Amino acid sequence: MAISAGQIVFYYLAAAGIASAILAVTRRNPVHSVLWVLSLFLHVAGLFLLAGAEFLAAVQIIVYAGAILVVYVFFLMLVDLPKEEAGPRFGAHWPLCLMVGLGFAAIALWVRVPGLQTAAPAPAAAPNTGSVESFGSALFKQFVLPFEILSLVLLAAIVGAVVVGRRRTEA
Amino acid sequence: MAPPGAYLVVSAVLFAIGMIGFLSRRNIILMLVSAEIMLNAVNVSLAGFSHQMQDHRGQILALFVIAVAAAELAAGLALMIALTRNRPGVQVEELTQLKW
């Protein structure tokens, strides 16, 4: 069985993404953690490209790598880095957490096996799913109501952030 | 072309890593970052489904997940600022005021 170039790229992206994620949750320095998460997000964007989701890959890079991570790095300035590096990284209960996580992964991998072979491979009805044009037309026609509700969610988050984060003035 | 189901395997592994990080890290910011890893894992599986079924809806759902992640970031970090103002340091064990 020949391995195609697409498969090689997929396995590289998957392995590098998972390695970045492991490094991100285990590094002692929070800035290093966030940089490894940046690497993870870029590899996930590559996975999106491979899955034919070009728009999603662009959004992943712009929103996640560009905006969200920058805000995280900005907020890391609130942390006392030397003190943070001196203390323990994990809580005392970390073996339990590790078991819970591995148990979750085991269950997820075990459950997926039977159903996945029946997943219908590619009905030819929908042409070029990945194209931004058809994606946008589906988003603004079929899913326009959820899209608008999403703007309300973001507005609520903005207002909530301002209200919670503002300095209380004694009136 | 990746083998069918490979996206789900990647997604499950990433989600488990994010879960371990969220449960075990002591730094609140890194807990939020781990939550982002979990949301990203879900997006990977949605993109994989979208590819497998040749259907847009997975990608649209993933877009919504990204927007909700941004909202979560705003709310979570605002809470963190409010916390840091009252007591510096972002270790979760120290936040016990609500403990009964």
The CATH architecture designation of chain B is Orthogonal Bundle
CATH uppermost class of chain B = Mainly Alpha
Query: What do we call the CATH homologous superfamily of the largest domain in chain A?
Result: NADH-ubiquinone/plastoquinone oxidoreductase chain 6, subunit NuoJ
What CATH architecture of the largest domain in chain A would you give?
A: Up-down Bundle
CATH first level of the largest domain in chain A = Mainly Alpha
H/I helix tally of chain A: 7
Output the structural class of chain A.
mainly alpha
Describe the 3D structure.
- Chain A has about 170 residues and is mainly alpha-helical.
- Chain A is about 75% helix and about 0% strand.
- Chain A has two domains: about 1-85, Up-down Bundle (Four Helix Bundle (Hemerythrin (Met), subunit A)); about 135-170, no CATH class.
- Chain B has a single domain, classed as Helix Hairpins (Orthogonal Bundle).
- Chains A and B meet through helix 1, helix 2, helix 3, helix 5 and helix 6 of A and helix 1, helix 2 and helix 3 of B.
Q: How would you concisely characterize the structure shown here?
A:
The complex is a heterodimer of chains A (171) and B (100). Chain A has 171 residues and is mostly helical. Chain A has 7 helices and no strands.
Provide keyphrases for this structure.
heterodimer; A: 171 residues; mainly alpha; Four Helix Bundle (Hemerythrin (Met), subunit A); B: 100 residues; Helix Hairpins; 3 helices
What's the helix and strand layout?
The complex is a heterodimer of chains A (171) and B (100).
Chain A: H1 5-26, H2 30-50, H3 54-75, H4 81-86, H5 94-116, H6 132-141, H7 144-165
Helix pairs in contact in A: 1-2, 2-3
Chain B: H1 6-24, H2 28-53, H3 57-86
